[in-house]
Each structure stands twice: as C-alpha cells, then as structure tokens.
## 1
Amino acid sequence: MEGGVIEDEDLIVNLRLLIILNVLISVDVEERAVGRIVQMITEDTTSTDIATVSGCLGLLKDSMAMGDTSTKTKEAQDHLLRIFFSPWWLKVVSNKVYNDDAIFLMSAIKQRRDYIKEQTAVVLLRNVLTCRRGNGSQSALPTSSFLPSIVVLLSCELNANHHESFSESGDRVGMPHFVPHWLSTEGVNTPSLTDGSIDEVDWYLRNYHNSFDDCPLAKVVSDIIFGELIEKARSINSDELLIMFQASIQEQKEVNQATNARLLRCSGQASLQGPVSIKGCYVRALETDAILLTFVCKVAEELSNYSRSFALEGVNAVCAVRILNGVMPLFRWPDLFFKVIMKLKGSGHLANLLSEGGPLHNFNWCQQWMQGLSSHQRDVEMRLRRSEAALREAEIDEDNKARQFRRCPHCNEMFGVDQVNCGVFYCGRDAHGANGPAVGGRAVQGGYGCGGQFRLDEAIPYARDETLLGPLREEVLANRNLFEASNQGAELWARAERLDIPPISFRLQNEDRTSMSSKIFNISLVDHLQQTPEEENICRLAAILNQLPRLEHVSCLPDLIEVSPRFNFIYHAIDMC
C-alpha cells in the first residue's frame, strides 16, 4: 500500500469478498450463502472474476439464489455498488481498478442494468468524477476538474446519435445537444441555418434537437454537470455565466475534422497517466448545454430577487438578449424560466416583470405570457362583452327597421308606412294633400323627401346596413381573438406551473435563502448533510421540507434514512409530516 493507495490486487480481491460478506449479513440472508463466501476466503479459492465489480455482483447474486427474494437481491446489489463506488473506496484503490470500475459503471448505466436506479447512477458516477480531481480543479468549468481520461472514456460511451458534419474547409457545421426530457416537447421547429457568416449563438442553435435520445448515460452525466454548475452559480452572477457559455460555444465551434479524428482515436486509448485533451468532446458538449440551462435559471433567479439581471444590463447585454430570444421559442424553455420566477417570488412578481416598464416587457417571447395576465384577461373580457352588446343592439335595431321601413325608389330615403289606402305614395308627403304637399295633413315647403310619386310595391324593403354592422362585427372578432389569445396565455401560466423539473441536483435560493427543491429529493444535499453540524442540518432540513407538499415528505424518507445513522433526521422528518 503506497501513499494510501492499494496496489496489491490480491488484497483488493479479499477486501471485495469481505465487503460482499458484510452486505449479505446486512440484508439478513440464509447462513448457507454467508458460509459459501467464508469458505472462499478461508480456502483461498477466489476467482479472478472477483477482482471486477461485475464478478462481485454475479457472486452476490449466485450466493443469494438459495431461496431469497429478488427484492433482497436488488437491495444487496444496490448496497454493494454504493460501497464500491463510494469516495473512500475510489480513493484507496489503484488506478487500474479505478479505471476498470469506472468503465463498468458507465457501461451498466448505458445498458440500463436493472440493479442501478437513476438516482443511484447519479450518485455513483458523480463519485467517480469528483473523488479524484485533475489539474484543473480551480477551473470555472466542472469538466476541467475531472480526470481527462475519464471524461474521454465517458465521451466514448455516450455515442451520440449526432453525426458530425463538416464544411469543405473542414469546419464543424454544428454540435450535438442534450435536451432533458422534461424540457423537450414534440413538434418544435428548430432553426435551419446555412449562412456561413452566422455568429456563435446562431451556430449553437443550428439544428437544436436532442442528439442523445436513447442514451441514459447522457442524462446522468448532464445532471451531474448541471448540479456542479448550480452550486457554482451561487457565487457568480448571470453575466459571468454568459461569458462561460460564450467561451464554451467557441470551443465547440473550433473543433474541426482533425480535432474530431483525434478525439475518436483518444476515446479508445485513454489512460490515467498520459496527457489527454478533452477539448470539443461529447462531455464538453453536454457541459455547454448545462451552462445554458444554468444561465437561464440564474437570470430568472436574479429577476426574482432583484427585478433586474446582471447579464441583461452588463456589457454583454446584447448577447444575453440574443441568447434568450433564440432559445425561448424552443421546447419548454419559457416554462422553465417562468416556473423558477413563480416558485421563488410568486406569479404577482412575474406579472410586474412583464408589465409595462418591467425588464421583460419588450421581449417578443413574453408577449403571449403578458396576454395571460389576469388583469389583461379581465380587460379583454370586458371589451369583448361591450363590443358584443353593441353589435347585438345594432342588429336588433336594424332588424326592426327591416320589418317597418322601405326605401323610396327615387331617392332611396327610408320611410315608414302608416296607412296603405289607395297604394299611391309621395316621398315625404301625404299622397292626398288638399292644398299641395303635406305631412300629417300639414303643408310642407320641401326639404323632407324628394316628393316623387310611386306605388308601394315599387318601394324597396329596408335591408340591414352592413356599413354600420361590419365594423362592429370586426371589433367583436378582434376582441374574440384577443380573448382567445389571453386564454392561451393563461394556459401557458398553468402549463409552467405543471412543469416538473426532476434533475436530482437542481436547487436554487431566493433572497431569504429559502431552498427551491425539485420533487426528487436532492441527493447532493444528503451528501452535504453527512458533512455538516447537526443543528445546522436540522434547520436546513426544515426549510426544505416546508417547501414540499406534505405527501412528498414521505418520498424523502428513504434518503433521510441514508444519513440517519449519524443524525436523527428521520425522527425530525416524521415530526414534520
């Protein structure tokens, strides 16, 4: 054992057997299963397969095949994996064991092995990536602090569905993207750009779709990177994240055919000792997308806390606006953005941000959301009712005129028939005025009707005046469209409220330092609870549980049990439920 690292492979095998024995005892299996492992240790009949995690899992499963339930087997496998990929184990094993175990874990996650749940996969792979740091530990980018060889191996396992394409000059045409399933939706048209003079933002958004549709490993890696970035975002502002995002895009854009060929060669030759470059690899592409995700959340967080954003007011404001205008029409990005604001400060604060004079008022992608404001809905509904009432009143009036009036065949003047008598009429006059033209028996001096003579059947019946009703109908139609748009806007608010943001590491804070937790309990928080004083943790636990519905407290209990041997969190959680 040199420098705290176990180089003796036989010793590692014996330690694995002891760990298997401990796991079997902890799940209360039959004595025969335990006896078999004890026999292997005492008689030194261990197989070389036990030197691998895969061999240990197989031995564990075989040992438990003597009448035990599959539930117990899965429980034991989960326990074994958590030990073999715990920070303390990964720090003491040799580089070869570390490398082999890492490759096994990546492959198991990629192949969706039933003994590795998604939450467990995030914890285990995060341990692999973070327990041994590379030379870039102080770098702003999470992947720069991971061991380059492991990052390249990960990129090899990711196997993006994205087929690299290059221009005639060898420049990269686009980059692979990872869009989380909870953020994606069907039927979204992404920009198709062909102009060679496009800037970095346009280039990034070119053919923006999920290149890792059927790759669970990409989901796990993305969540780990996102969790690291969210933690880093606590101490930096959105403008700094924007600079990181620009630099990351530039790195991806600089990958040419030669660089891509080098990455493909390195993916099969990564070693823990040799220098390996990770520039432009698939993991770095996932990181670029995670930076964008973090940037959008940070802008929303700043708008929630301060009603302003550093990125939207700094020297890079034009680029920040370009990015938001480019990404917000795609998938469910606006749902995420507005969900963060509503969770941190409420819908009333969001309404203020969207209102005239607010920082979001002039964004085109916010217009439909503004139409969904309750105040706007009430105003539009009232205008619609008034216009419908005006149209209805005008139509009734016109219908009455159509029943009661006719038009003079000579001057088209409207008149009503009081009595038919002989059927001969003079426009605007009594037909039989004794001393000349008269109305109602009184003489008139012209100016009322044309005085032309006609028979009643020659008079045209009055028809609705469409020049009067047409504009009223157009006003009603316009108000109905506005009302429909306001209902669609209101549905956007409701849809954002329903958005489930499940990344395990996702957490933000508002200005009162109240946590916004995802519905999947924050496993990174569980790790943090194991390393901090009990009194501080009880307060932190209370703050988080208070943000969750009562029924979700129960879903936290398994994670709390994980840390309960050292602290009494389980009892506090039960009290809070």
## 2
Amino acid sequence: MDEGVEEVVRRDDTTSALESRARGLSAVSVDLDRPLLAADQPPGVAPVVGNVTDFGTAVSLVKCAIGAGSLALPWAFQQGGLWFSFCFTCVLGVISTYTVGLLITCERKVLRQIHDRRQSEESTVSARRSTELRVPAPHRYLAQKHANRQQLMYPEVALHAFPDTTFLWRGRTPINGAQIIVDVGIVLTAVGVCAAYLDFLAATLPDVLGSWCNQAYATLLVTPLLIGLVLLRSFRYLSFTAALGDFSVSAALIAVIAYGFANTKDYGYVDFGLRAANPVGFGRFFGSVSLLFNIQIVVLPVAHAMEKPESFHRVNRSSYVFITLVNALFGFLCYGLFGNDVANPVTGVFGDNLSEVAAATLDAVKILLCVDLLFTFPFLFAAGREIVERVVINALFGVMDGVEHPHRRSSGFHLSGEKSLADKEVPIFSEDGLGEDAGAVQGAAAELEHRSQSPSTPPQSQRRAIEMTRNITRFAILGVIVGITFGVPCFGDMVNIVGGVVNSIMGFVLPCAIALRVLANELSPTMKAVNVAIIIFGLAACGVSLTYTIIDMTDPDHEC
C-alpha cells in the first residue's frame, strides 16, 4: 500500500485521507454487480455517481500496490527461495483480489439491508418487531445515522456486520467493538507505513549526502520538514507530487533491473540455480508481499469514485493481474540477478565502482525516491491521525458529532458544549431495543443528522483550544513515528511488522469474517469454507511473521 493512498487523498481538499469523494460497488457470488436503482434509493436521496473512469480506477489500484514497498521484494524472495516466492506471490495476489472484491460486495449488501430496514420501519409498526430488527438499541442508534447513506467506509461496514459487538461505554455512549478494531488497524497501518518510509529515507539519504551523514542524522534532518507537512490543512499544495511519485517509483524499478543486467562484471544474468524454496524463511517473506497487496483500507474510496461502479469487480481483477505479475517478476529478476548480494531495500545493492554518469543517474533516482516518500508521508499520516484526533477531541471536549454528509462520512466535526445525543438518548434503550424505543432512536439519529448538516458555531476560545489540540496530537503522533524509527531502524523489519501483522489482519482476516456474517445466506458451503481457510491462513501467517521479526530484532548480529 503505497502511492495509491496519495492519489485517493488528492481528490479531496479536506484533511480526510481515506474518505475522499467516494462512490462504489462490487460482487462475489451474489448478484450485486449493479448500481442501486432509483427504487433502491432512500427517499429524497439522488444516486451517487463518481467521475473516475475504469482506467483511472485501475491506475489508482496499481499505484496502491506498486510503490516504494516493492523495493523490499527482492530481499523477501531471497528469504523464501526463488520459485517458492514467485509462486506464493501469485497465490497471495489471487487471495487479495478476492478479499478486495469481497469487501466492496459486503458494503453494498449492508447498504441494501440498511435501506430495506428503514423502509420496513416506516411501513408498519409490526415490522419493528421482526427478527431482522432484533438488534440492541445502542447498535441501532449507531446504525440509524447511516439510514440515508449510499456509501460506507471499512469501519462502518464492520459496525453493521457485527451489531452484537456494540456496547455502552460508561453506560451511556454506544461503541461498536468491530468498528474499533478496524479503526485501530487503520491507525497502526498509517503509523507503521510512515515509520517504514522514514526508515527508508534515513537509510538512503547517507548514500547521497556523504559519509558525514549517518542514519540517525538523516532522521533528525528530515523531521523538521515532516513537521511542516503534517500541519498542512489542505493537500492542494502537494498536487504536483502525483506525477513525481509515478516517475520516481518507475525509475527506481527500471534502474535496479538495468543496473543488474548492465553490471556484467558482478551480475549480468539471472541465475536460475539459486535456492528454489526455503519454507523456513516464509515468516520473513510474507510481510513484504502482504504490505503491497492488502490495500483494503483504501479500496472503498477508490471504488466510490468510479463513473461506472458496476464495473469495479472486473477492473479489480484485471488490475490485480498486472499488480501481481509486476511485483512477482520484479522480485524474481532482482533476486536472480543479485543473488545473496541483494539488499533491503534493493537500491542498497548499487556499488561504488561506477562511471560518473551511472553514479549520477543512480543518485538522482535515490533523490527522486526520497522526495517522493517525503511528500507521500503526510497523506499516509492523515489516514491515521484523523481517527486519533477524533478520539482525543471527543475525550477532552465532549464533541461526539461528526459532520455526516448525506452520502458518505466526512472528516469534519462540529463543536457543541452540550452532551452528545448518545448521552441524552441512552435512557430510552430497553433490554431488547424494540417497540417505542425504535422510533425514539430513529428520532435521535434524525436530530443528529440535522444538527450535523447545520452545525452551530462554537465559541472562539473553544475553537482555538481544539485547534491547538489538533496540532499537539499531530506532534505526538509524529513523535511516536520518529521514536519507532529509532527503535526499529531496519526498513525490512518495519515492513514485516506492518505487512505481516497489521495488513494480514486487515486484508485477509477481517474481510472474510465480515463476509461470513453479511453474506451468510448467499455464500455456498464451499465458499464459506474458503473464507474460513483464508482467516486461518491470515492468522497463522501473522503469528509466524511476527515471531520471525521479533527473532531478527533481538538478534545482536542482525543487519538491515
């Protein structure tokens, strides 16, 4: 998950990193590969249509899964063996294709359930007492906020898939456990990828700046620049970096392979006689591939932005064929060319005995990569800090209400000195949450939506206090990332932690678990077994990858 996050964020001038102008649809084993018809729309809500073509969507998906993280693949192939790694990369590509489409399908099914439930509630009072509506009142309070929505994000899909995980925090505030898990996963992914990028910058800059600069100095050198970038209120000033990112990553991939073939003295050919398989090294191999392929936290905004959302499933399949082949071939060729000399990242393999032109070209590629990652950092950072800001501001100021767009969740918040609606309305919750309580909860949600669309202006002093809190929160998160970089200075270790642990859960385990709940009546027994197998695989791979990463990090002889 790399440059595509930046592309998603650039479509919106707000600070929302994953909730850009979103539209979407997909399908698996049920007939969901169609847009919502007019009859399916909530009353008074027009269909949502994006403006991104199928080709543009494919480009966004490719940018998500081919980027700076691809430079860790050759080392991963060395750990897993040449042919084992190539084949298993293809297998992981197939699984990721399936889980990405599965998440989009679940979102569409959840939306239809929400709209059908609302129509049932409005038609007859007896419908409220149906089995389908027997969910805890605290959960229905959260769900009612989405009654007019045509788009959901990953945490919201999890919320509706697992209503039985909703509980009252401190006896008054409805909170959904599944939504919390996904939110935490997004934060950990954002922080981890940012730390990996900072590791890459710290390891690469000394090669360009000279011997006076070591990894610690490089980290301190870029930190002031990162402070300025994470405080930006609009990403429009960074729009020029989109083309720079595409060019720099492409140039790096091409330069590495060209260097391997051109340097006939040391390399010059692909050695097919290298170790074919090393199953013991799977724990070190898995993280790099998982980091690239598991882009589920950004696919919903990408899908939502489509001009023809009904074609997402086809675009997803074709995009992942390209993504899988490029990543698999790059790892295969680089390990075959450099053998046991391969570095992590692979740009570290560039030698010193080069002509002036070759050395200048390779240095230029490194500089472009560093500049690109520097400007990509705030986009990834925003994906996690937005969630943390919301929690911190709510805890300090009692601000519960997010500005709810009629079709999607927004990143803005309006301020109020009053108690939250959740605080006010919790007393109406009965044990089963039925009967008159359902109407009261729906009324509370309607009031929430009305207030969110017409927010009151907070006092100037409160606005200043909240703005200061936002900045302090950003400083704190950045400080955590810098601290992680000093604690885990190896780019490969950081990639394995994020890809092998967090992305494995977010990309393999949770989408399949959500599907087993949301699509329980549509999935065949065979497909249910497939989903269970993927969950077991994701958990096992997560444990193995974490174990090997801890072993490496605690090894005093471990080298980056």
